[in-house]
Amino acid sequence: xxxxxxxxxxxxxxxxxxxxxxxxxxxxxxxxxxxxxxxxxxxxxxxxxxxxxxxxxxxxxxxxxxxxxxxxxxxxxxxxxxxxxxxxxxxxxxxxxxxxxxxxxxxxxxxxxxxxxxxxxxxxxxxxxxxxxxxxxxxxxxxxxxxxxxxxxxxxxxxxxxxxxxxxxxxxxxxxxxxxxxxxxxxxxxxxxxxxxxxxxxxxxxxxxxxxxxxxxxxxxxx
Length: 223
Known about the structure:
Layout: H1 5-23, H2 30-37, H3 42-48, H4 51-71, H5 79-96, H6 98-105, H7 119-122, H8 133-147, H9 156-175, H10 184-200, H11 205-218
Helix pairs in contact: 1-2, 1-3, 1-4, 3-4, 4-5, 4-8, 5-6, 5-8, 5-9, 5-10, 5-11, 8-9, 9-10, 10-11
């Protein structure tokens, strides 16, 4: 039985994600997608008006899943511990889905950089609402840390941009293999660097370390 339209659209997006992770964004084409799904290339144009539309649909789904990963732990009374958990989930998502992460935040011509905005001016990282949800989640975490008096208020977008820079830089280097495959990218690089940043923003080191310990206790097998 043929799939209804909405089902076929979802089927094509999922197939596109598989191709993206297996073969890379440059390999994603209507022909390859048709072979993967047993449909015709016309299906891409029927449901997405072409490959650009399909890639944006894949990106929207990816950002939604990324945001779910960042926010899947319930908020606690310790917003810094919650932020550390968000950082672990950020890293885990990127390492588990490297091609999707590069599509979202990479520097190649085929990434989604055409949708970015100057967050220091606009207060957000993307002019595309569906692509802005993950930065909204980070901004919420920053707002909670400021409201709790843990870090100073230099403006939520600017602080979110600084903390994102730490996670993004550490994750890219770990993806490239510079920190090995034993979890040292988290334990020796990202977590201590984030501690130093939060202390520099006004938190007390001992309190920051307690928050880190509380976060890591929830993830005993993290790394």
